[in-house]
Fold this protein.
Amino acid sequence: MVLFSNVLCRRMEEVRQIAQGSLIHTLFKTTINDYDKSAAWNPSLWESYQLKNTYLTSYLPLFSILLFSLTFSVYGVDVFVDLFKKIGVYPGMREFLSDIELKFVLLILLMIVFFMVFAALKLIAETINGVSMLFFSKESEGQLYNRVRSGSMIYFIGGIASAVSLKSFIGLVAIFALTSIVYFVYFVYKISVTVSKAGIIGVISLQLFTWSSLFMTIFFILLKLYNGVMASLPIMSKVKL
């Protein structure tokens, strides 16, 4: 009788444990299903995930500008040091600064100048892209703008690649121009989803007209300034880029 009671108690304990396990499993499964449904249908979770992905590359434009500014400045330091030596002011500057200190000061000053130039170009590019999408895109909620933001990675890679051409001004300009062309192709490809063929032609025409007008104006201004400087300072003719 005692043995039968012990066996019966053990069986009842096993049944109770199984029941508890089934209950926990059912509750856990229900909780998981409710969470899956909530995650699938709750738009705030999906939107926050999209925002996190969108802003992951928000720092790349700044780094790209810094990289291009640094590479152009490193080349410019050698040009200015050569210029100072030819016009005879380099020995006088060495009385106040060592060679390393002088080059470092020139590097900082040139980086500030190039940073302002590239930042202005980025501002102009953002404006032109926005006007292009305003005139020719069918999308008006800003989702297309977020899609093309990832193209900043192209300029970041171009900034890194420009380090291989620190001794060539033509090489630096060529890398920057090639990077800009690749970004423009990427931009057109991304907006082609919501832009018709006629709209794509309009975007390309607007971009080419705006940039060509801007660069032609700057080129003629710099050419006139260069000719004036060359006429007033013959020593400048000995400086080679």
Observations:
- Residues 60-238 form one domain.
- Residues 5 and 11 are 10 Å apart (CA to CA).
